[in-house]
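Review form for a predicted model. The reviewer records the input and the model, then writes brief findings.
Reviewer: anonymous (R2)
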Amino acid sequence: MKEKTTLALAQISCKRGSKKENIQKMQKYIKKAKKRNAQLIVFPELSLTGYTIRDQIYELAETIPGPSTKALEKIAEKEGIHIIFGMPELSQKTHAVIYNTAVLIGPKGYIGKYRKMYLPTHSVFEEKRYFRQGYTPEVFETEVGKIGIMICYDVFFPEVSRLLRLKGAQLIICISASPAVRRHFFETLTCARAIENTVFLAYVNLTGLEDGLQFWGGSRLISPGGKVKVQAKYDTEDLVVAEVDYSAIKPVEAFVPTIRDLRPEIFEELKKYAEEL
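Model under review:
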C-alpha cells in the first residue's frame, strides 16, 4: 500500500433514470482524472441513476455485481484507476428489496460495497419508502489506502465515522446528494468528522437540479486537522484533484489524541439510553 495517493472528486449532475448516459459521463470524468494522475475517483450518491427517481427505482435497481458494475469494471481496468460511485442495489434474495449503495471498484475488478445505514425520511426526503437500511460500516484495504465509506445522512451520526476509523480507515469517503438547504450542516459536520477522528475525509456531492431540488456541490477533501485542502465549485459540475499523504495522520494523532482518549464504556451508556427513547 502506498503512503500517498492522488484523489479526484467528480462532482456531477445526473440524467435521471438513464444509467447509460450517466456511465458515459462518468467515463469522461474518469479520463480527465487519469490525465491528472488520479488513482481514485469518487462520484456522488446514486450517481448511476440520479437521486429523485422515486418509483422508477424498482426498474433501475441492479444486483451487485451486475451490468452497470461490470461496465465500470471494464473502464477501471482500461484506465488503471479505482472508482467509487452510488447506485440503487437490488437484493439477490428478493425482487423488491433495494439498498442505497456505494460501490468500490479497482483496476483488478470489484472490491466491495457499503449500504447506507441512515435513511432520511423527513421534509423533502423519503428514502425509507424505497430503501432498506444497511447494518455495518466497512473498511476496504486497497492499493490506494485503507478506505471507509459512508453516504450523506450518515455523516450526522458520529458513531459511523468513529467505527470506520477504529476499523483502520485512513481515508473516509462520504458520497452525497445534499440539496442547498443543507449546505451549512454538511460543511460543518464533514470538518468535525475529520477532526474528531484524525482522518482524511472526502465529501463528494451531487450538483444540478432534479425535480425541484437544487444540489449544491461544494465537494471537498479535508485533512486530519480539519483544513479544507481542495474544494469544488458551488452549484455546477466540477472536477478537483488533490494528493492524500497518509503520513500526515501521525503528527495530528499526537497533537489531538482523540483516539487514544476514547472511553469505550460511554458507548455502553449510549446503547442503553438509545434503547429507552
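Findings: The mean pLDDT is 97.
Further findings: The domain at 4-275 is CATH 3.60.110.10 (Nitrilase/N-carbamoyl-D-aminoacid amidohydrolase).
Recommendation: see findings above.
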